[in-house]
Amino acid sequence: MCDTCGCNITPGNREFAYKPVNGTTAVAVLKSLLARNDDQAIHNRQHFDKHRLLAINLMSSPGSGKTALLEATIDALRDEYHIGVIEGDLETENDAERIRAKGVPAHQITTGSACHLDAHMVHDALHQFPLAGLDILFIENVGNLVCPASFDLGQHRNVILLSVTEGDDKPAKYPVMFRAADLVLLTKSDLLPLLDDFSPARAESNLRNLASTVPVMQLAARKALGMQPWLDWLRSELAQQRARVGRGETAHPRIQVGAMRLHEASM
Amino acid sequence: MHELSICQSLIDQVEQIALTHGAKSVELVKLRIGPLSGVEPLLLQHAYPFASAGTLAAGSTLVIELVPLKVSCEACGIETEAEPGWLVCGACGSCHTTLVSGDEMMLMSVELIAAERTNHV
What chain B residue is nearest to A24 in terms of C-alpha separation? Predict the structure, then answer.
């Protein structure tokens, strides 16, 4: 199916595609508004697959512990894997410096006023960031529960952090973001005994109300508590990624797989 | 805040289509947007005149068709309407549902004004 000859027009969508008006020509398009970003994301994903690495997009609100999670993960997997990190923030090199202090390559993207990373920004970063020899590439997105959800960066998996100092109703408040998760981490869980208003069960129930069946894990990165299931998840995802690359296949976050199936079926 | 950058990406696509068809300008642009797309139709509508200014789409009309949010239940097989934060089956309450519609962010069609012909055959 192509986007030029009109073969993507079916009886089901014809009425939306054509509307003849005198003196004008109607052209059917049926393409995502983010087609340019999505094309770039496909290209990025090919880069990642060529290097046999697993690319993970970390998303959360600001201050939920994305960088602390990466520091603890780097410490725990130091002898096992080569890790690289692309950091996204509006300003400062602070997060990249924290990662570099762990002896791991890090590239900081400063977005200025942009509230999310897009596939082009990540691609520009890749030109200055050697992927050779890396096993896992983390892309730490701009802290924001809204905009980053809309932009495919070429990652294989989305991991979303929800710290227990936030509300356990965040999945209900930000459904577009939490629906995009392949894994949800409840972070800073060592603080749970001090907080009487955050219920992990309620957080999970709010996530299930979004028809999400993905795993939910509790951990406290700075205390190195509950890290094992997360590290095992990474090991398993990397092994699966290596097997896929061996078969010439790739992976998308589950939400994209669902959307592709849905929109191909409707065309 | 990301509606402006999405709108700019839309205008790029629309201009490319207009150029491919040798059009003089763009009359109308039609989108379908669902509540789970992550795009706010009203903000997109506000951003449109700014993003299209100085392009072949300047002065054109943006029509946004809102798509209803519907899920299909894997347990009972019934299709029901849903809310963005409540995607469980409206009939049996199961959370094992798949989205039927509502995450669209789609450029459906554009209407172009043809360039006046200079060579009459």
Answer: B113
A56 lies in some domain:
yes
Q: How far is B83 from chain A (nearest CA, A)?
A: 9
- State the smallest CA–CA distance between residue B55 and chain A in angstroms: 17
The answer on A234 and A117 residing in a single domain is yes
Residue A55 sits in the same domain as residue A84:
yes
Residue B93 C-alpha, separation from nearest chain A C-alpha, in angstroms: 9
Number of domains in chain A: 2
Residue A234 lies in a domain: yes
Bigger pLDDT: A60 vs A10: A60
Q: How far from A185 is each of A22, A28, A74, A159, A230, CA to CA, in Å?
A: 56, 42, 17, 7, 8
Judge: B86–A118 Cβ closer than 8 Å, yes or no: no
Distance from the Cα of B113 to chain A's closest Cα (Å) equals 5
Direct distance between the N- and C-terminal alpha carbons of chain A, in angstroms, rounded to an integer = 10
In a domain, A264, yes or no: no
A263 lies in a domain? no
Reported as a single tens digit per residue, the pLDDT across A86-97 is: 999 999 999 999
User: What is the three-class DSSP state of A164?
Assistant: coil
Judgement on whether residues A126 and A9 belong to the same structural domain of the protein: no
Alpha-carbon distance of A234 to B79, in angstroms, equals 36
Task: Please list every residue in chain A whose beta carbon sits closer than 8 Å to the beta carbon of residue B3.
Answer: none
Q: ipTM of this predicted complex?
A: 0.86
Residues A85 and A174 in one domain: yes
Do the chains contact at B6 and A259, CB–CB below 8 Å? no
Q: How many CB atoms lie within 10 A of CB B29?
A: 24
Task: Flag whether residue A3 sits within 8 Å of chain B, measured between CB atoms.
Answer: no
Chain A residues within 8 A of B11 when measuring between CB atoms: none
What residue ranges define each of the domains in chain B, with the CATH number in brackets?
3-114 (3.30.2320.80)
Q: What is the pLDDT of residues A165-215, one digit of tens each?
A: 999 999 999 999 999 999 999 999 999 999 999 999 999 999 999 999 999
Beta strands in chain B (DSSP E): 23-33, 61-66, 70-73, 79-81, 97-101, 105-114
Domain with A9, as residue range(s), is: 1-31
Query: Which residue of A16, A146, A211 is in closest CB contact with B108?
Result: A16
